[in-house]
Structure formats: C-alpha cells, structure tokens
Amino acid sequence: MKKRYLSLIVAGLMAGCSATAPEPQVKQEFNYDLTKYNLDPAKAPAQNFDLSNWKITLPELATEGSKKGKALEIQKNELANTQTPYVHDKWFYTDPKTGAVVFVAPNEAPTTPNSKNTRSELRGMLAQKYDDPKNNFVVASHPDAAEYGAIGGQLKATLTVDQVSTSGNYKKNNAFAVVIGQIHGSDNEPLKILYRKLPEHQYGSLSWNYELNPVPELQDAVDGNGKKLRKDIRHDVFGKHNLRQGSADPVDGIQLGEMFSYEVNVKGDIMHLTFTKNPDSDNPVTKTFEVDLVKGNYQGHDVDQGYQNDWMYYKAGVYNQCNTKKSSSDCEWRGMEAGDYAQASFYELELNQ
Predict the structure, then answer these.
(1) Could you tell me the residue range of the domain that residue 211 belongs to?
(2) How many domains does the chain have?
(3) So what's the pLDDT on residue 13?
C-alpha cells in the first residue's frame, strides 16, 4: 500500500483585538504517516467514516423545511448516505490532501436556541426520532435502562485542532477555546473536552469538564456570592486550561496541527477517559481518568446528584467557545481571514453503541 504523509505548516497568531489580521508567529511542521487511517481525499466524509448514528448542526440558517430560519441540521439518513453524500464546502468537508473530515465554526453565526456559541458538530442519534428514548443512552444502574437505546458506549477520535479564535477576553476561560467532544445529558454535561490556545503561544492546552448536575429546582440556584451552584469542574490533561495574558507558554501542551486522540468509554456506571498525545509516535504520552457517574457529590459538591437518572448522548466535532457576547467569552468577529473561527480535522471518529 502506498503511504501518504501529512505535512502541516502551522502558523501561530499574535494576540490582540485589532481590526487587522494578526501577524504569523511560529511555523511548525508535522509529518504523520496516515496509512493506518485508510482515508481517501477524493471521498466525502460519509464515505470515509461511519456516520450512520449521527446528525450534524452547522453554523448557518436552514432555507427550507421545518427548520427554516433555524440553525441548519442534516439528519442522520442524509448525512450517512454514501451514494449522494453530504458535504458543506465551508463547515463540513474532506481535507483534499489527507482525507480527514474537517469541522469549522466561526465566532459569529446562527446557532441552536439555547447556546451563544456556533458549532459544526455531530450529535449521536441511536434512533430516528429525536424524542425517542431509544435515541439516547444511560448508565447501567438507571432505573429504566431497558427503555433506552444503549447502556453506555464508546467514542474514539484521533484529530488535530487546526485553529482557534485569535480574538477574545483573556480573563474568560472559554475565549480562544473549542469543544471537540462531549457527553450531553438532558440538561447538563458530564463531559466536555476542550482545547484552548492563547494567540501569542505556540502550545495550547487540553482539558475536560464535569458539570455538576443539580435537581431541577436548583438548576439556576446561586450561592451567597451570587455564583451558580451548577458549574463546570475543570481538569487539566496537557497544559493548563486557565492561562492568562502574560502566562508562560504551556510547553507540555499540544500545538495547532499536532495529532492527539481521546477515548471515552462509559462501562456500567463508570466513565473512563483516555487522552494520548502523539498517539502514532515512538513516545506517545497517555493520561487516564475515571468518574463514577452515579455517585454524585462530585469533589464534595453536595448539589451534584450525578447522572444515574439522566439520559445522555455523545457529540463530536467543533463547538466554538468564542462568541461576541461581552458577558461570555467576549471575542470579536472580524472575519475568517482574521482567524476568528475554530477548526479541527478528524482522522479517526468511531462511535460504538
């Protein structure tokens, strides 16, 4: 078999919120043997990847059908069709050199009703209908587990983050960040996997969040200081998630264009997480975590009820955490050419449920 190699020239971007495009900072070249992924650059995403249990939301308005005027959704039957496969030339397409599936989301564009952030993101669909319990999965000890589509399941991905926003408020942890994988519950998220890189840094940081899951009447409750009781508990994997302007470059992190992988495996009641930097090299670096999704009281937060009674689904792709709301990540929208978008390329994407 003929080997194909990926050679990426990655340009870091200078910090700032000026109206002009940032100057290139550092160029780094990566060479990867992509033979093992068996990807064909001439094929559409559905012809290289099994998309049969996914739908996708894209950052533009639907112009027809029941979703007209809302964020564009491509349903699972259309997305997985290998005879007339779906491609979007801006937001969801095959890389013409590597065969990777590319997800892109700008800082400002139409999005889903309950979010400020744009996305080019897959949502797990185990059934045809969105509101069918069989569409989602649960942990083994869920009292009505037999009514759902799966007990647990596995999501595996190997990818590069190619771009994060070059504008944003350094005091906001979601500025310069993108979510590349999730488990979403009915209200909250037991897992978000995030990559964040400051514009002046060569390296970015990989982290994951567990969101506390209160009972419904406490979803919006606050403490004595006015802070929500429901919040994300962040965990660093490579680098540090909360770096600020002037912080040292996290050289133990991951560069734009540098390959890494994650595996999420919910078995029984336990969520197992595995993160590997440079997975195909002679010296991969792997870190693992485990979370009991049933126990609750996560890290001593008694508001957390855990996810035993909740239903969940996997998500993967690009969920840009940079938006233009001052109260949120306070990013700008100066256009794609200024670097105000997020992009990731997936070489492996496998959902097993």
Answers:
(1) 5-352
(2) 1
(3) 37
